[in-house]
Amino acid sequence: MASKAYFLFAHLIVYLLATKTLITYVNAAGGPCGKTPIQSAALSLSPCLTAGGNAKVKVPPMCCTKVNALINTAPKCLCAVLLSPLAIKAGIKPAIAISIPKRCNIKRRPVGKKCGRYIVP
């Protein structure tokens, strides 16, 4: 199980590096992640990789810390990352990943907010 997570993480890194040269668009004017490219925000959530693909996996404390920080600074960014093709390619399942804030017991999560076709629990 751990080797699969490392394999997915390695693919995520390779994909990020490969697409970085192809993608010049940066949300400079304030996209969902502010001035941070979605790829960078996705990379910051790499500790959540296994928990975002399997609801039975305990969410690592570092994942909870990263998600909480993202919710506090740019809550729309979390949704953008979870629905991004990059996250899907890395094995993230949005229906499962959307539950991470609740699984982390984050009190200030945007309960009831829509994220694509999903609603934050």
UniProtKB/TrEMBL annotation:
**Stretches of the chain forming a coiled coil according to its record:** none
> What InterPro entries does UniProt report for this protein, alphabetically?
Bifun_inhib/LTP/seed_sf, Bifunc_inhib/LTP/seed_store, DIR1-like
Query: What UniProt keywords are attached to this protein's entry?
Result: Signal
**Quick one: signal sequence residues?**
1-28
* Any one Gene Ontology molecular-function term assigned to this protein's record: fatty acid binding
Domain Bifunctional inhibitor/plant lipid transfer protein/seed storage helical residues, every copy: 33-115
GO BP terms: namely:
systemic acquired resistance
Name of the protein in question: Lipid-transfer protein DIR1
Organism lineage reads as: Eukaryota, Viridiplantae, Streptophyta, Embryophyta, Tracheophyta
